[in-house]
Structures are given as structure tokens and as C-alpha cells.
Amino acid sequence: MIASARALRRSGSAPVNKGVGQAGARIPQIDNPLLLGALGLAAVGAGAALAVLRPSRRGGRTARFRSLALGALAGAPSGPSGRMELADLQVQEGFGKPTLVSFDVLVDGLGDGGEAGRDRAQGTTSALVNEPDAEPPADSTPPAQVAADIGPLLLDAFDRLVQAIWDNPEIAPVAIRGRLLSPSGTRPLADMTSLGFDGEIARPADLYEHYGSPASDRGWRP
After folding, report:
1. Secondary structure (DSSP) of 104-130
2. Calpha distance 176→164 (Å, rounded)
3. Most Cβ neighbours (<10 Å): which of 37, 45, 144, 190?
4. Could you give the CA distance from residue 137 to residue 130 in angstroms, rounded to a whole number?
5. DSSP code of 13?
6. Domain range for residue 75?
């Protein structure tokens, strides 16, 4: 027996139970091809689900909405009634919220280069505070009051522009924030309240009350 133990030590062979602890430390490996395929499909499915949940990023959407707005403004009044020019339009998409379309339109040519309309608006403000000679701040007059000075034709064109955006062929429903500004872009002449909405941003439910269901989804209801 003693001779056998000495022979094992000389040969360098390890006892049978020596490698049990080492084998237990090995990282488990998946060799089953069916299981590997199932895991791959699960990863692909998770990626697709995340892509669906993320806001849509269709290329050129803002450009297409801009073209839509320009088309709606093509028949807008010009000359004595004023000329309308699209200054800015943005499409803002957010997770869990309606897409917001914001735009600004410059109005020029309101008689005497627009100065008469602005003078009348300032006079209205001064009369309200009983200081005829006071010079009010640029944004002191609510757009709903100034809207009377730009005339019904421009307000009608503003309304048709909002409806065209509401009836866009891509997204339904949307929220809309629109403004008519002086030629310098610093003085608001009209906003969504001028069209009868409660705030500067018209919500889908309010737009539905005003225009009905959007053209791209006639079955939509708030």
C-alpha cells in the first residue's frame, strides 16, 4: 500500500476526486441549436417592440408639413388685406402625447406697410388703460384683440391653414399651435385663441369640436 502511494506521487497523477471543484467552476455553455435560435428570436422581438414604442422619425416629415402649409397659404389674401408668409413650422413628436405642430406666419402689407394696423392696435390698447399718449410694450395687446385689426379675410386664411394641418394625411390626431406675427416677427397679431380655442395650443379634442374628425381618420373620436 505504501509502495503504491509512493508510486503515485512519483508519477504526478492526481487522485480521482481532485478535479471535482475545478469542474464545478466552469461557465455553463448552451450547445442546443434550438435553444440558441429561440433566444435569437426573443432578442429580435424585443428590439422590434422598442422600435414600435419609440416616437416615429420618418425622414422629411417637417418638410412635408411645410409643403402642406404652403399649399394652404397659396390662396391666402394679399394686397390691402395683407400678405401671409410662412416663417417657421416644427413637428414635435413625444412619447405618449399627441404630435404637436407649431407654426408662425408673418403678415405684411396691412396698409401703409402694416404700420396702420399696428397703430390701430396700439390705440386700442391705450384706450383700455385711459392713456392715449402712452407707448405700450410690443406684446401688451392680447392677440384676440389685435385680430380685429387684421381683418376677417386673414383670420379666415389662418383658420383654413389650421384645418389643413389638422386634416394632414400622415398623423391623426395632432395638437396645433399657430400664430400670426408682425413682419418683424416680434408682435403677435393672432393666435389660436383668435379662432375661438381656449389656449395658445389647440388640443385634439378642441380641434375635433371645431373641424370634426381628421381627414386621415374619419372614425377618430376624442
Report:
1. EEEEE-SSGGGHHHHHHHHHHHHHHHT
2. 11
3. 190
4. 15
5. P
6. 61-211
Give Cα 181 distance to the centre of its chain. Answer: 21
Paired with 106 in beta bridges are: 85, 181
> Cα–Cα distance between 179 and 202 in angstroms, integer?
12
C-alpha cell at 20: 471535482
For 107-166, the pLDDT digits (tens) are 987 644 444 444 443 433 222 223 333 333 444 555 555 555 678 889 999 999 999 999
Chain centroid to Cα 50, Å, comes to 19
Of 132 and 72, more confident: 72
- Whether 42 is in a domain gets the answer no
Q: Is residue 11 situated within a structural domain?
A: no
Question: Nearest 5°: CA angle at 200, between 171 and 53?
Answer: 35
Residue 174 CB contacts under 8 Å (≥ 6 apart), including other chains: 98, 99, 100, 101, 165, 166, 168, 204, 207, 214
Q: Is 191 helix (H, G, I), strand (E, B) or coil?
A: strand
Q: What is the tally of structural domains in the chain? A: 1
Distances (CA, A) of 164 to 69, 70, 73, 160: 7, 10, 10, 6
H/E run at residue 107: strand 97-108
The answer as to whether 20 is a domain residue is no
**222 found inside a domain:** no
